[in-house]
Design a protein that fits this description.
single chain, alpha+beta, 3-stranded antiparallel β-sheet
């Protein structure tokens, strides 16, 4: 009896062992996975930016550059040159736009004197646009765009100028851009837009959604680009490069105050362009405001935005925009 019981126990134990090894793999408890550190990113091929500097912005493709330059591509060459260079100091634009708005009733020598009396701290490239409060207002009210065009001009100035020429070629091809009383349009390998009077610079008004595409049936192309609103500059603003700023299109060069503009992303912290005006450092204590502060009326702002002449509305001003 005892032998039979021992054999039975041995047989049951053997069955248990066989059953354990016969359990499917899917029914087994998963093995614990050891904790791991999160994967580390690959090092950047450009490397980390230098202390105090921002990384180089990505280059824009041609189609994006066309979009970016489209609002200003039909500006007369001297004004376009000043806008592009000023945009590279885009952080200073809002303050300058406010000052220009508050002193818009001053023109010519009186405005040039006010700029120096107040010792405004902005780069001379921005000071050069103070006679154009509507242009500075446009740039200040669209700061993402202003930063785009400023960064693009620092990083890829040649491509920016190529985009301007593409836009101008389209506007000429479709009949929108042509010579008139205020500007001369010179065609050829490169299209130039020059003031008929060097001392009087006009700001064109046009819709970028219209002037670079074929006109629809019955559309009058002659009025699509209006050169109505302008500013008299004269010798008072020669120190800021007016009268001595243009493009050497065949060399992809902007000439400001008779000197090539060489500011790029690589040297934008240290580059100093030769101007004939004194530079005041910022931040610094401002001298007391020496002039009446008068912002433009809504009518004046809207007239300028539409490219229309307007009469100065403030009581003490006796000069009018032409």
């Amino acid at each position: 009896m005892r032998n039979s019981l021992s054999k039975a126990i041995a047989f049951v134990f053997l069955l248990v062992l066989v059953g354990l090894y016969a359990v499917p793999a899917s029914a087994q408890a998963p093995l614990p996975v050891p904790a791991q550190e999160p994967p580390q990113p690959f090092p950047s091929q450009q490397g980390a930016p230098l202390p105090g500097q921002m990384p180089v912005p990505a280059a824009y493709p041609p189609a994006e550059l066309d979009r970016i330059v489209s609002p200003i591509a039909l500006y007369p060459d001297p004004l376009l040159a000043q806008v592009l260079t000023a945009a590279t100091f885009y952080t200073e634009i809002p303050d300058a736009a406010q000052w220009a708005d508050q002193h818009h009733y001053l023109t010519g020598p009186a405005l040039a004197a006010a700029i120096q009396n107040d010792q405004v701290p902005w780069d001379p490239s921005i000071q050069a646009l103070l006679p154009f409060p509507s242009v500075l207002d446009m740039m200040a009210s669209a700061m993402p765009w202003t930063q785009e065009i400023g960064s693009a001009f620092l990083v890829q100035s040649n491509e920016v100028m190529d985009a301007v020429q593409r836009m101008r070629q389209s506007a000429v091809q479709y009949g929108y851009l042509r010579s008139g009383p205020q500007v001369m349009v010179r065609t050829g390998p490169y299209i130039e837009i020059l003031p008929t009077s060097p001392g009087y610079v006009v700001v064109p008004y046009y819709d970028p959604r219209v002037v670079y595409v074929p006109p629809r049936r019955g559309y009058v192309v002659a009025g699509a680009v209006r050169f109505g609103f302008g500013v008299s500059l004269g010798v008072a603003f020669a120190p800021w490069g007016w009268g001595a700023s243009h493009f050497a299109w065949n060399q992809h060069t902007v000439i400001i105050n008779n000197a090539p503009w060489r500011r790029t992303w690589a040297n934008h912290v240290t580059y100093v362009h030769p101007y004939a005006v004194h530079r005041y450092e910022s931040p610094r204590p401002r001298f007391a405001e020496a002039h009446r502060v008068e912002e433009r009326s809504n009518h004046e702002k809207e007239s300028a935005r539409r490219g229309e002449k307007y009469k100065e509305e403030h009581r003490d001003h006796r000069e009018h925009f032409r």
